[in-house]
Design brief:
The protein contains 11 helices and no strands. The protein is mainly α and 271 residues long. Helix 4 packs antiparallel against helix 5, helix 4 packs parallel to helix 7 and helix 7 runs antiparallel to helix 9. The radius of gyration is 24 Å and the shape is elongated.
Length: 271
């Protein structure tokens, strides 16, 4: 019994240390933003730059508060989030299927992978002038952001499948698993870490691609706010849009990070 209580005590100490370490690292991550905010405040107070070029922090805060109260900021953020969810869903599903196909079939890899790699080298924004000729500048054009998820999802899924140990595949063959059983019980579980990396990169690329598309061809969304603020020379609006874009991207990445931790914990418990 004493050994059990001692083990529980050691586990509690280790958990407390981990929490303390996370708190320290979390606080350290606030140092640079706080320093930049302080430099921004000093530059505005000292008049190093005109207010038309660098609005004071409090003025930007008031602009953000007014845009939230009027619903304008939430509307544009909602439009961008809807677009990125749709594009990411299409690109990630297509990338998962394509990555599985290339990873499982050498023939498909020989025929498809060279063309896909060439396709991947063309930036997402490089497709916009051509797509404008076929679909215009409406919502259909925004589907190009699916490419932001398609490329990393395909490559990481392919890498994860090819990285599965041959020993596990041999076990499946020894147990007379069907092709579907080998894929579901051996290949995909072994490729989960790499696939999840593709999900994270795909969501990040989809978000940045969306903002770029909205900068060029949109009348709604956070990217449009950037262009509109620049055209009207409302730098406070530009800064608010930039902050929201960064915060939304950061929140999505942290959400995926948390999801990955939960999946990995579930896998360890299963084992």
């Amino acid at each position: 019994m004493a050994a059990i209580f001692e083990a529980d005590g050691d586990a509690g100490i280790r958990m407390a240390r981990r929490r303390r370490s996370r708190a320290v690292f979390g606080a350290a991550g606030l140092v640079l933003p706080a320093a930049l905010l302080g430099l921004w405040w000093v530059a505005s107070a000292k008049g190093w730059l005109a207010e038309q070029i660098l609005p004071p922090p409090f003025f930007v805060y008031e602009t953000a508060r007014d845009m939230i109260a009027s619903g304008e900021l939430l509307f544009h953020a909602g439009v961008s989030l809807r677009r990125v969810v749709i594009g990411f869903a299409i690109g990630s599903v297509a990338g998962l299927c394509l990555g599985i196909a290339i990873g499982l079939s050498q023939k498909i890899e020989d025929y498809v992978k060279p063309l896909f790699l060439a396709f991947a080298q063309i930036p997402t924004l490089g497709w916009i002038p051509l797509l404008m000729l076929f679909v215009g500048i409406g919502e259909t054009l925004k589907i190009i952001i699916a490419k932001g998820a398609l490329v990393p999802m395909t490559l990481n899924t392919f890498s994860g499948i090819r990285g599965v140990s041959p020993k596990y595949v041999e076990v499946g063959e020894a147990l007379c698993f069907s092709r579907w059983q080998r894929l579901r019980l051996i290949v995909l579980p072994g490729a989960v870490p790499s696939i999840f990396t593709g999900v994270r990169y795909g969501l990040t690329h989809s978000w940045t691609s969306l903002v770029g598309v909205e900068l060029l061809a949109s009348s709604e969304g956070l990217g449009y706010l950037l262009v509109w603020g620049r055209q009207m020379f409302w730098l406070d609006t530009v800064i608010v849009a930039m902050i929201v874009i960064g915060l939304v991207g950061f929140a999505m990445d942290k959400g995926l990070d948390r999801t990955e931790m939960l999946i990995q914990r579930w896998k360890r418990q299963e084992i």
